[in-house]
Design brief:
The chain is built from nine helices and 22 strands. The chain is an alpha+beta fold. It has three domains: 200 residues, Beta Barrel (YmcC-like fold); 128 residues, Sandwich (Immunoglobulin-like), CATH 2.60.40.1930; 79 residues, no CATH class. The strands form four sheets. The protein has an eleven-stranded antiparallel sheet with strand order 6-5-4-3-2-13-12-11-10-9-8. Strands 17, 18, 19, 21 and 22 form a five-stranded antiparallel sheet that branches. Strand 2 and strand 3 form a beta hairpin. It is elongated.
Length: 486
């Protein structure tokens, strides 16, 4: 009864004005008198330069990057006049430079350089997100400017119709300076999302928002902060910046690769299942390599694990860590709220076989160390030298009986099956490494061509080297004549 009375007393003495303001929205002050309004893109003009630190949940689970934008001028697309912006993105070790087109009524990106697509999407869904509620024109599908005194700017349908409301007036500090701002916010799964708006300024200067969840701790949806703002910039600030793709291409790196190599295995203690994809197929020292890592339940292939704390390591043959990607990024660990993690890395490992390890600390919210024992999956990847040549990897000596088999097979002493079984043994035991080759299904004839038998005979007597012989084995795999052990 005493606890109930205390609650009632506290509730009774809550400041009614602030409570009403929180519920219904709307703020005014001497600086923001009644009638003051704002819209996304307000005051945007040629020569404006913006630099933002930002992240969005749809891109690498809100991994931070920097987006700089310079309004170059107008561009006509069909019958519509748009803003043409030059853009530079600094994403870890990656630098991209290109263009982005912004609408005049709502400054949402509608076109531009193809390789900036994911970053345009993050910009639209964060920095320009309020253009869904406040635009320069109320016609042609626009929403029109919104007053700071308004009780609500609209509803967010996909999170149960939560109101987006002007909440308060604050002085907010960013790396670009101190700003007098109106805080626009909404409630998301128990957390309050906030965006800081400055009257007369085209875009918000800061935001901290959360993804809607029905239970648990809401993960961030997007965050950004204005790092720098300049006016009347005449010349492009991005002249002289070289995109990393150009740098890698000049080094002879593959820049148009897919993540085609797939590994699906349980961790050593069978606590987790991991499905990893990487590319390029043959990484080169000093070049870029990309991964998609999926953390899956050991009980159900379709169930992704949540709140995974892990690291991506390079280790020596004794499992001693040589490199940590988390530490490369200045973090203690990597984190995946959804169980899917996308990452890019520069290959720093020496030519040969790199021992990469996905080290799983456990499952827990970011910032709370897991109480379970860690587990890991080791993945061996062949690394090529910077000149693009395949590195020579020491392997166990090929048993003499295999070469004897090859010689006997070439002169007809043993049959095809006996020879193929010997080659399968080499591959299975890791004595012979076959580059990834698409497994064929066989054709009208499974007869082994005579030139492969000739190769086998020459290999047996030392006339040709292992690589020349392996090309013949790859042919057998591709044609479906030989099945490679998985």
């Amino acid at each position: 009864m005493i606890g109930l009375m205390a609650i009632l007393v506290v509730t009774f003495f809550l400041p009614t004005s602030s409570f009403a303001q929180f519920q219904s929205g709307g703020v005014t002050s001497d600086e923001f008198p009644a009638g003051s309004a704002w819209y996304a893109g307000e005051g945007l003009k040629k020569g404006d330069y913006f630099s933002y630190s930002m992240c969005h949940v749809d891109y690498k689970e809100c991994a931070q990057f920097e987006l700089d934008m310079w309004i170059k001028g107008d561009i006509t697309v069909g019958t519509e006049t748009k803003w043409l912006a030059e853009v530079a993105v600094f994403d870890g070790n990656k630098v991209l430079v290109g263009t982005m087109e912004l609408g005049k009524i709502a400054p949402e990106p509608t076109g531009g350089s193809e390789d900036l697509g994911i970053y345009r999407g993050a910009f639209k869904s964060s920095i320009a997100w309020l253009s869904a509620f406040a635009t320069s024109d109320g016609s042609s599908g626009g929403k029109g400017p919104k007053e700071f005194a308004a009780k609500s700017w609209g509803k967010i349908g996909n999170i149960g119709g939560e109101q987006v409301v002007p909440m308060s007036i604050e002085s907010v500090k960013t790396q670009s300076g101190l700003w007098d701002a109106v805080v626009v916010g909404w409630k998301t799964g128990g957390a309050m999302s906030k965006v800081w708006i400055v009257d007369g300024f085209p875009f918000p200067v800061k935001a901290s928002t959360y993804t809607h969840v029905s239970e648990g701790i809401p993960p961030p949806e997007y965050r950004f902060e204005l790092l720098d703002y300049q006016e009347n910039m005449i010349e492009s600030p991005f002249d002289g910046i070289t995109p990393t793709a150009d740098t890698f291409a000049a080094q002879g790196c593959d820049v148009n690769y897919e993540k085609e190599v797939s590994i699906k295995k349980p961790t050593v203690n069978f606590d987790y299942q991991i499905h990893a994809f990487y590319g390029p197929e043959y990484p080169i020292q000093g070049c870029e390599m990309s991964w998609i890592i999926k953390f899956i339940s050991k009980y159900d292939d379709t169930e992704y694990l949540n709140q995974v704390q892990f690291d991506f390591l390079t280790v020596d043959d004794n499992m001693k860590p040589l490199r940590s990607l988390a530490q490369d990024e200045g973090r203690t660990n990597l984190y995946s709220p959804s169980g899917v993690y996308v990452m890019d890395m520069i290959v720093k490992e020496d030519p040969g076989t790199a021992n990469y390890v996905i080290w799983v600390y456990g499952l827990s919210p970011d910032g709370i160390y897991p109480s379970t024992a860690p587990d890991f999956l080791k993945i061996e990847v062949p690394i090529s030298a910077s000149d693009g040549t395949q590195s020579v990897v020491e392997t166990p000596a090929i048993p003499s009986w295999i070469k004897n088999n090859a010689g006997w097979w070439a002169d007809g002493t043993i049959d095809d099956n006996s020879f193929i079984q010997g080659i399968q043994f080499l591959i299975k035991e890791g004595i012979m490494t076959i580059p990834k080759t698409t497994q064929g299904v066989g054709g009208a004839s499974d007869e082994i061509p005579s030139w492969i038998k000739n190769n086998a005979g020459w290999w047996a007597d030392g006339t040709i080297d292992d690589n020349s012989f392996i090309q013949g084995i790859q042919f057998l795999i591709k044609e479906g004549i030989m099945n490679v052990p998985q």
